[in-house]
Amino acid sequence: MRRQFILHAITVVALLALGARSASAADNAAIREKAAACSGCHGENGISQTENVPSLAGQPDQFLQWQLVFFRAGSRKNDQMQPIVEEISNEDIRNLGAYFASLTPPKGPEDKDPDLSKKGAQAAAGRRCASCHTDSYAGTKAVARLAGQREEYLVKALHDYKAGQRVGGGVAAMADVAYHMSDEEITAVSHYLAHLQ
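-> C-alpha cells emitted (197 positions)
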C-alpha cells in the first residue's frame, strides 16, 4: 500500500514538473524568436498598431492555439497567415499560445464617445456576449478576449461572421449572433469592447 502511494506521489510530481516545463517553454529564446516574427503585423509585445490586425497579447492560450490550427488547416483564411502557419509545428503552436497569453493585454484607449459605448454595452448584453466571452470580456479557454481589442478589427470580425466568411471554433454561435446584428449594433458593440479597460 505504501509503495503504491509513493509511486502515485512520484507520478503526480512528475506530471506537475511537466506542466511547469510546458508553462516555461514560452520563455525560451526560440519561441521568443518565432513570436518576434509575429510583431511585424501584430505589434511589439502582441499589441497591434496595424489596422484590421488583432492584438494577441492576453488572448487565452487555447483560443490562440485553435486559431493557428484553423489557419493551418485552411478553415480560416488569410493571405498573410497562410505561409506562416505552414512553417510551424504543433509544439510551436502550443508555445506561441502560451507566450502571447502570458503578455499583458492592451488597454482600451480613452473613450471619446461614451454614448456609443452605452449603446454597445446594451447591445452586448442583449446578444448575451458575456455568456461566452465572460463578464469582463477577457475570454476564457478557446473563447477570444474582446476587451481592448482594436475597434476596426472587431467590426471586421463581426461582419465576417455575419457574411459567413469566418469559420472556426464557436462559428455556429458567432454566425448566429452576428447575422442578426444591424450595422449600427456592430459599430456600437465594437466601440464598447475596444474601449474596455
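The radius of gyration is 19 Å.
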